[in-house]
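Figure 6 in text form: structure in, sequence out.
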């Protein structure tokens, strides 16, 4: 196992009807900015619950944070923050809203020339307003990590800072009942691939991390389809298991002390940046190709994945790996997400532009060995056609 330091200070309130707890989590004298997206929280009752919980606070609101939040949109919050001396940000929504809140919180106290440099130049965040979150879409883990992804002019870039990790997060599985099938699938697949990015590398004998990861993968494989099936769709036990899996997939726990890959995500970000494809749907296209192209380097873990997650115990190691890749793709298809670029109407001519973007963004040595050069990324994208 590799050395690591681990701390996750986000307090989680998990379960039904817990939104009222935000009243005691946010300091009574705080001036709160509630930030949200395009209005789903108004139609599913979450907005009213938050409003009731904030009845004793001074609060304002900022809406319109879009999926794959845009810099220009987020910066519009800054005038409101200054005008009302806002000192607490409450994110109510999915990963885009929570990520957006993180950038808003960092930009509010940014003292340099352009807050975009936090992403473009990876300038470390020096200070940020405190954040709380009410999560409505289990997927990203953003509710209890320090990561955020923001888009500007087709450039989708990540930043990370412990200063923007939410202080608390409310996870009520009931609020996920209003999700569309598309968003349910996206969430399950995103969480699944977060686990894979931290698991499918090379062994350092991190047995605890491996077995946590395998448990999360198996839970998502079991519960994901149930959240789409008519007779189990409304089952809150299913929703709860998916929700907690998604948080655990990217809250730092399973990634501590093990090598990490993240090439699927970095290539996927370019597909979203250039073509607007949903985050999870870029990942379901790229991951199978990464598994095939890096099959040799990932061999040991691929065999372990086949045996422990898919229970493939017959045949040669190569056969096990083949089967595991097929079953992973079949699971993605069962969840209704694309597994090829052609499924989203992209073809070989689109690859050059994606490679150029990867180069522009410095994504020239990806993967756990730093050996996914632009040429290897091209091979991955070709195989994904
Ligand atoms: O905007 P509203 O009206 O709220 O609608 C949203 C949005 O249209 C809707 N939605 C959310 N909760 C709902 C709901 N609709 C009905 N009922 C509910 N309960 O779902 C749509 C998609 O929301 P979004 O927040 O974009 O989805 P997701 O949570 O998948 O977040 C994706 C973003 O997170 C980033 C992605 O790149 C992408 O920008 N990621 C963040 C990460 C992190 N912070 O650690 C890691 C991830 O790998 C990912 O990169
Ligand atoms: Zn993701």
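Output sequence:
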């Amino acid at each position: 196992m590799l050395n690591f330091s681990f701390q996750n200070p986000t307090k989680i309130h998990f379960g039904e009807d817990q939104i009222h707890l935000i009243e005691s989590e946010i300091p009574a004298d705080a001036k709160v900015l509630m930030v949200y997206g395009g209005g789903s929280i108004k139609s599913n009752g979450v907005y009213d619950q938050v409003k009731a919980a904030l009845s004793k606070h001074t609060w304002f609101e900022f809406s319109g944070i879009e999926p794959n939040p845009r810099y220009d949109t987020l910066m519009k919050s800054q005038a409101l923050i200054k005008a009302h001396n806002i000192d607490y940000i409450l994110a109510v929504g999915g990963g885009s809203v929570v990520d957006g809140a993180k950038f808003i919180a960092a930009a509010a106290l940014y003292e340099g020339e352009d807050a975009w440099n936090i992403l473009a130049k990876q300038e470390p965040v020096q200070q940020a307003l405190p954040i709380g979150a009410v999560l409505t879409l289990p997927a990203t883990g953003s509710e209890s990590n320090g990561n955020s992804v923001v888009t500007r002019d087709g450039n989708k870039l990540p930043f990370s800072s412990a200063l923007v990790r939410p202080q608390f997060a409310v996870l009520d599985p009931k609020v996920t009942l209003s999700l569309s099938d598309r968003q349910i699938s996206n969430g399950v697949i995103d969480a699944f691939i977060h686990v894979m990015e931290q698991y499918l590398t090379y062994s350092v004998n991190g047995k605890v991390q491996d077995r946590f990861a395998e448990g999360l993968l198996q839970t998502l494989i079991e519960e994901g389809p149930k959240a789409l099936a008519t007779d189990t769709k409304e089952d809150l036990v299913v929703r709860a298991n998916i929700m907690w899996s998604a948080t655990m997939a990217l809250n730092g726990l399973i990634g501590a002390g093990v090598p990490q890959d993240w090439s699927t995500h970095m290539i996927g970000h370019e597909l979203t940046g250039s073509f607007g494809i949903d985050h999870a749907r870029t990942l379901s296209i790229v991951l199978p190709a990464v598994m095939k192209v890096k099959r040799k380097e990932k061999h040991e873990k691929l065999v372990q994945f086949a045996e422990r997650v898919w229970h493939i115990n017959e045949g040669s190691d190569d056969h096990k790996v083949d089967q595991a890749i097929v079953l992973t793709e079949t699971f993605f298809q069962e969840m209704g997400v694309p597994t090829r670029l052609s499924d989203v109407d992209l073809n070989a001519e689109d690859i050059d532009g994606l490679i150029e973007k990867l180069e522009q963004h410095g994504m020239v040595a990806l993967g756990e060995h730093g050996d996914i050069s632009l040429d290897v990324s091209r091979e991955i994208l070709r195989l994904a056609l």
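Caption detail: The chain has two domains: 11-174, 179-383.
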